[in-house]
Amino acid sequence: MNKLTALETFKIDVVFQETIQKLYFLDSLKSNMGSEMSEMMSEEISRVMTEQRNLEKKYARLGQQRSQLKGLQNKEKLQEVIEEIKETARELKDSTRALCRVLKDNPDINGNQIKIRNDRMELIAIAEDLLVQMKDLSYQKFKDTIIEGHENNEKLGKLRKEEKELQTKIKNITTEHNEKDEESLLEFEETEKEIKLLEKTLNDSKTDSDLLLKYLQDKADGEEICQLRGFEQKETVLEDEIRELEDKINREKQVSDKIKTFLLAKKQELENEAEEWDVKNKQETDKLTQEIKELEDKRKEDEERHREVQAQLENESAELERKKKEEEAQQRELERKKQENIARDNAARYLQDKWIWWDKVGRGLSKKGRKGKKKKKKKS
């Protein structure tokens, strides 16, 4: 759909050729207009902005000066500075309004003309480029340019919206700042009232404080005299105690010297005894060392003998164990033979009992049996 017919191309070419000529004509007419008006407006704006900057510097200087003025001696000067701050704030507010009004009523004509001229030349370039494209009966590049322009306009709209929001925020912040300044001034005025009230209270109580001070001074003087007398009495008592302590110290020193002499003599005596004990200790140590050596040798001999006795005991124990096993074997053999004898005796006794029974009973039964058999044979 980006192709055009030859007739459509011709019509568009005629229209755009005429448009380009008119744009060039407008550019030649507007090139030298508004220079004097622009200079007048720029001078007015510069003057208002200079006044605005001076007032801002003055306000900052007065604020710093107010923070440095403290104490009752600077009260009058502080009040003058506060009044000057109020006046400067009012002038600064009026100057800000005037600057806004001047900027609103006097736009940047020179800048606007440059912007219009640039936009016009850009439009001419787009039109000429379209004429070149239409030689091929196409306008795709022109279409892309228009779409890009729409997108740029949308971005510009967003930027303007953001700028408007920022201006609103700046206005709100400025309003809050002014309100805080007014609140600080009110607080300062209230503080001034409190200071005046305190000064009045101070003046009223000054007389009472003077009387109280005189009374306290007289009372302190009397107490000081009483304390001095008491101190003199205590000083006398302490001097007596010091003399007694000095006498006591002298006696203690004499006793200490005697004790020291006695202790030195005792120390020498103990040192001599210690030397004697060292000699005796060495002799006893040597003697005990010799005895320990002899005992050690004897212990070794006893250990050797103990090992021999232990070996002998082990041999005897092994021999006893062997004999015990032999006796147990013999005992078991005797027990076996005894059991065999008992079994033979029991068997013999059993046979003997059977024989006795046969001899007494069985034989008779055998005879009766034979007789019965004979009777049966006879009957038959």
Automatic annotation (TrEMBL):
Keywords: Cell projection, Coiled coil, Cytoplasm, Cytoskeleton. The keyword Magnesium does not apply. InterPro entries: IQCG. Residues 288-309, 319-343 have a biased composition (Basic and acidic residues). Its main location: other. Residues 45-98 form a coiled coil. GO terms for biological process: cilium organization. This is Dynein regulatory complex protein 9. It is found in: Cell projection; Cytoplasm, Cytoskeleton. GO terms for cellular component: cytoplasm; cytoskeleton; motile cilium. It comes from Euplotes crassus. Residues 288-343 are annotated as: Disordered. The keyword DNA damage does not apply.
